[in-house]
Amino acid sequence: MFQTTDSGQDKHIAWVLLLPLAFIVSGTLIRFLAFRYAQPDTEWTNYFGALCRWDCGWYIRMAETGYDPFPIPSRVNAGNWAFFPFYPMLVGLIGKIIPLPTIVLASLLSIGFTYVAVVVAWPLLGRSLRAYTLYAAFMLSGPVSFYFTTFFTEVMYVLLTTLVFRYLAKSDYLGAAGAAALLSGTRIVGVFSSLSIGVKALMDYRQVNGTWRGVVGGIFGQPKLVLAIFISPLGLFAYMAFLNHWIGDGLAFSHTQRAWGRQVANPAVYLWEGLVNWPTNGAILSNSQILAVAAVVGLFVTGILAWRRQWPAVIFCFLGIIIPLAAGLASMLRFMSAMAPITITLATLFGRNRIVFAISLAALLVSAWFVTLAWLGGNVALV
Amino acid sequence: MRLSERSPAALAAYALAALLALFELAVLWQALHPNVSADYRAYYIDRTTTCLPQPVTGDYALGTELDFRSGGDNTRETRPCGWDGPAGDGMHSIGETSRLRLAIGRRQNLTLMLELTGVTLPGPAQQRVVISVDGKKLREIAVTPDKTERFTIPVPIDALDEDGFADIALDYPDAISPGKRVANTYWRSVKLTAASLSPA
User: Fold this and answer.
1) Which of A18, A347, B56, B159 has a CB 3.0–4.6 Å from the CB of A131, allowing a cystine?
2) Does the distance separating the beta carbons of B36 and A248 come in below 8 Å?
3) How far is A173 from chain B (nearest CA, A)?
4) What pTM did the predictor assign?
């Protein structure tokens, strides 16, 4: 990931704006054909509904009916308080104005937000056309593009993360804090972007002054930065205030995890157990191994970011991997796919060489077909 | 904009930051002091139970034998928590406690019948089941894996509260984890195929 500032003129602006549109078309075509192939008897109009699997159903219900009270009317223990509000509630609000079925509206909005997320990432991709092409293909037409084109919070998570790092590249703490505030209301790990802002402020201080001496006064002597520090976790605190009011427990998003049977343990143990959980059904990799490999790749790229001294991204990625990993490997592939600093860095790496770029692009587009089929088939590694 | 400037904008930024800090501290304090029911606290926060009682009517005609297998009676309104199913071999216990709630009308001496089978997961040779009614422990029974047995337990009038219901709890001290690192909310012990509560 590049930490570049905006440049006034950009000769590739037309390419930057148009290329993702091409991938929107190709991605929609691939996923639609995969849907028709997997479910030939299903009405084609149910395309968006067929791709809405696992947590997507929770988000639809949230957008339509909001948060569960306690006791939960459906008499289950798993309250939807586990899911952070920003994106589903935004879809719900827009749904009050645009009368479309929720999954259709959410899918269209997701495609739009993903388009914006890709365009916004352009400077972070080093303004490299090859890196940009790979990133756009991955998000809109890649193997896990269904995360970003149906109804998952990952869409908004990627967009807001990208905005945080765009603002941080310019040392615009308030802009970053605004995006971070929304990010912390999108997924719990989004709150770690607050730490990225703090780390960036420290790095800036050191760069400007050449010393750590007087750092505390230097930091707290900047009113915009102080304000940014308290704005950035505001989404999380607003949600906690709502939960306090709604069910009397501001930490219900964490407490309700008990209903899913999540066991907190050493992340390294979960990782190791996943890696050595060999398949027994003749597959090349077991689901646990796929999830563990996703986490390992995430940690490896975080290591690359550390080697490049991109500490704000390092702290964000490291905590964004380790904290969910402490509760198990579940959804790790989805989490890694939505970790923008990691996928952007990978795009820049694979975009360096023309041949590697061509192979990577082909692999992304071809694998979209097979992974979409696996998604429609209910493969739990993709949950 | 720096503090040393003491401009109105800088002071406003500090004031807003202070307000936000106060709001966040207040929210945090509230979150650390939840205002929830005892059942909520026990299940979600203290984790002292795996069985979160859901509201049920407890509709039941005294003396009726309920069939808890799939295709049997609709027993949803008698099962507040701790059951998974029904399945063909009965209602599977889930967690370390299961509950039944049965309407009894006026207080009287009763006889509780439970038909239970132990689960066949690797574990103890028998599953102990501690049976309580309205919070009073009545008896501990032992259920054998893959063997269906009927247990009859007297419920004295003194054990019953005056709310018109018998709240029956089955605690499983030997509940078995079905896999590595599975939370106790998903542990297994017995399968319930039939139950009744009759006047003694």
Assistant:
1) A347
2) yes
3) 12
4) 0.93
